Amino acid sequence: MLGLKRLSRHSTGIEVGKNKLQKFAENETFTNLFQPALEEVWQKDYHLKGNWNKVIFKNTNPIVLELGCGKGEYTINLAKMFPGKNFIGIDIKGARLWKGAKEATHLSLLNVMFIRTRIENIPSFFSPQEVSEIWVTFPDPQPRKSKAKKRLTSSRFLGYYQKLMKDKGTIHLKTDSQNLYEYTKALVEQNKLSIIHSTNDLYESKIVDPILSIKTYYEGMFLEQRLPITYIRFELDINKELKEPAIE
Description:
Layout: H1 2-27, E1 33-34, H2 38-41, H3 52-57, E2 63-67, H4 73-81, E3 86-91, H5 94-106, E4 112-116, E5 131-137, H6 155-162, E6 165-175, H7 178-190, E7 195-199, H8 217-224, E8 230-236
Parallel strand pairs: 1-4, 2-3, 2-5, 3-4, 5-6
Antiparallel strand pairs: 6-8, 7-8
Helix pairs in contact: 1-5
């Protein structure tokens, strides 16, 4: 029996590996998924920088990013709700992006694209003021103070966003992490950025907006655990030098 169990686990591992390889192979066929090599974007501009509207979307509609988009649930649902906007989901995990790219292809959503890259690289993909809006949905909260600069709402990352966003463009953070929410709110307040909405318990708040009803797989898990979902939406001043808040 022990031998059979070991064989079963090993076989499962092989199947998982094959499944990933199949997804990676299929990723190469999607016209809505861009997977540049590191040397194409490391300290240099990607060839589509400044040309997403003209070359890819073929319109002048606003561009909205979802950072750390995972399987693209928010990217796809926002695209269905707002056909007059263009959406780009960004993540480093190819197996996750496969799901979003495949669904967008199946639904024939022409206002959805995906990029496989690290978030640190996004200034290589977009020109100044090319992006109107950014969503950060359930990112790694990086709770340790020593990892604060890795938070996607840290002054470091907001500095990246300043290089590509329109002035007063909006940033949304939706997270189960009270610490990340409080940290982000403190950063926004310290730097005197304009808050549009802010709540430490979204579904008990009075905020009514259909875009907030979209739920990712992970959000569903958090809600099952009765964890309150926090949300903050604020405007980014692209000309302001941002400082870290005093709190962790």
